[in-house]
Design a protein that fits this description.
Elements: E1 7-12, H1 18-31, E2 37-42, H2 67-71, E3 75-81, H3 89-96, H4 99-104, E4 111-118, H5 125-138, E5 142-143, H6 152-155, E6 166-168, H7 179-201
Parallel strand pairs: 1-2, 1-3, 3-4, 4-5, 4-6
Helix pairs in contact: 1-7
Length: 208
């Protein structure tokens, strides 16, 4: 990763690997755009105990996110499996700790997106995505969904919504991303990267 290039932060929580697989496809979409990079980060699980029990570095996958990853990103995508039609507690716990960035307006006018996975086809994909955008709007971010120019939205028999990429993981969470889901996730990454480059090139006082 180059220290000089802007980056899209792809921040996710994944328990069984489905959301992580989506994050990797979004990253591939970002990386297909010249002049910007993808930075994959995850969040630790929430423990009911009061003392730290998890290692500072996860055993596999992306490293844990820090506030500085958000502060300096050019764009942000957040991903989570659904939990009763909402994002999982670990991701919400992390976002609840971003008040410092909100107070300083660090994310204002930066593009953002969300993605999710569910065990069942009607298991809350759209409600999860819609609730995930709420904290992004509070941060003053510009939300970027998936336009219907992405024809897979009309063809998919698995995941895929105009509110963001999604995936039908199956009741055992072992169904791999199908072709349509992969294409839509990559398309969302590409769109986010292009918007990030365009908005970051615009002087701050001209964005509003």
């Amino acid at each position: 990763m180059s220290a000089s290039l802007p980056y899209v932060l792809i921040l996710y929580y994944s328990r069984h690997g489905a959301t992580r697989a989506m994050a990797e496809r979004l990253a591939a979409g970002v990386e297909s755009v010249r002049g910007i990079e993808a930075r994959l980060r995850t969040v630790p699980p929430v423990s009911p105990t009061c003392e730290a029990v998890d290692p500072e570095i996860p055993a596999e996958g992306a490293v844990y996110a820090r506030l500085e990853d958000l502060r300096h990103c050019a764009g942000l995508a957040i991903g989570s499996p659904t939990r009763f039609g909402n994002m999982a507690a670990p991701l919400k716990h992390f976002l609840d700790g971003t008040s410092e960035l909100w107070l300083g307006g660090a994310l204002i006018d930066k593009p953002a997106a969300a993605f999710t996975s569910t065990s069942s086809l009607h298991g809350g994909q759209e409600s999860t995505l819609l609730t995930m955008l709420v904290p992004l709007l509070h941060h003053g971010m510009v939300y970027a969904g998936l336009p219907y120019s992405e024809t897979e939205l009309m063809e998919t028999s698995g995941g895929g919504t105009p509110y963001g990429a999604s995936h039908l993981a199956g009741k055992r969470s072992d169904r791999p991303l199908d072709e349509h889901e992969c294409r839509l996730a990559q398309a969302q990454g590409r769109r986010l990267a292009r918007l990030a480059l365009a908005l970051s090139a615009m002087p701050r006082d001209e964005r509003s």
